[in-house]
Amino acid sequence: MYPVIEWKDGTVVMLDQRLLPAEKKFLTLRSHLEVARSIRDMVIRGAPAIGIAAAYGIALGVAEMAGRPEPGRTGFLQERFREIVTAITSTRPTAVNLFWAAARMQAVFEQHQGDYPRLRRELLAAAEALDREDYEINRVIGRNGSTLLRDGDTILTHCNAGALATAGYGTALGVVRAAVEAGMKVQVIAGETRPYLQGARLTVWELQEDGIPVTLITDSMAGHVMQKRMVQAVIVGADRIAANGDTANKIGTYSLAVLARYHGIPFYVAAPLSTIDLATADGAGIPIEERDGAEVLNFRGLATARPGTIVYNPAFDVTPAGLITAIITEENVLHPPFGEAIASLQGLRRK
Ligand code: MRU
Description:
Blueprint: E1 5-8, E2 11-15, E3 26-29, H1 32-40, H2 47-63, H3 74-89, H4 97-112, H5 116-146, E4 154-157, H6 172-181, E5 187-191, H7 198-209, E6 214-217, H8 222-227, E7 233-236, E8 240-242, E9 247-250, H9 253-262, E10 267-270, E11 276-277, H10 294-297, E12 298-299, E13 302-303, E14 316-319, E15 326-328, E16 333-334, H11 338-343, H12 346-350
Parallel strand pairs: 4-5, 4-7, 5-6, 7-10, 8-11, 10-15
Antiparallel strand pairs: 1-2, 2-3, 8-9, 9-14, 12-13, 15-16
Helix pairs in contact: 1-2, 1-3, 2-3, 2-4, 2-5, 3-4, 4-5, 5-6
Bound molecules: 5-S-methyl-1-O-phosphono-5-thio-D-ribulose (MRU).
């Protein structure tokens, strides 16, 4: 729908999501360090999109070596590849898709490191495949999740788990899109998602572009709309799902899950299998990114609190598995107990 990221003539082109909805501008990135900076600075964000950016960034890093002395020498390549992967993976710690994508690229590197021209082609092909696959996976997540909704439902979502956060279509918003495509009249309530406003700036924008009814609320209004029975389901994305189902997602997600439980509203997580991290037993092991306090103290250059105020700015929180009604994946809809459901996933075992 929107070319959030693409490979074009040996460069990586990204939609600059920091400027939305005011401006639709694309950045052309010519080095893996520029791609790394774009991930860190939120030009591109959302777990699957970060994974795709990582894959293209690594392919670009290896392509940058063309014409340099000795790219064919295995030791040289190995050293450079390690540096490229480190630069890309040290950008944002929480979304596991970043590390998953890097591991996929590493496997391609190991297979073809003896032949530099072939290695370049194969890495690019792997990044493009990952990009295409993510779109297809979102379509399936959407179809699987739409079976949980009913005509007339209002869905509360948080942050942006839409086309902008993926190769297109979205995870949580993919479920909404699939419901609309199936002929259901559904609408969305989007929390603005302080401090970065992914809900207000991105979710509202992309739903409006698609003509899907959306109402914006501030995050603190969520309890009120649930109490007023204005919400039939909460659907969010995920940055990392631990082996027991504990789920890290944008800060504020946990509060929504507690509120949903109190009001008897189903709370769904929609995510691809690549977001499930079997190596992390539970939520306590998920690294939570802390971002610059300036994001809380200012909005677009305007101070919203006294400069120098002490700020705590965790970008994500962990929703315990016990508060999640179901996890919607491309393989199937997982129900509690999630530890067992996750362990039985065929798609994860193959990877
Ligand atoms: O800080 P962000 O904007 O990268 O956070 C994004 C989220 O928390 C999304 O909900 C998550 O990555 C899922 S995107 C399909």
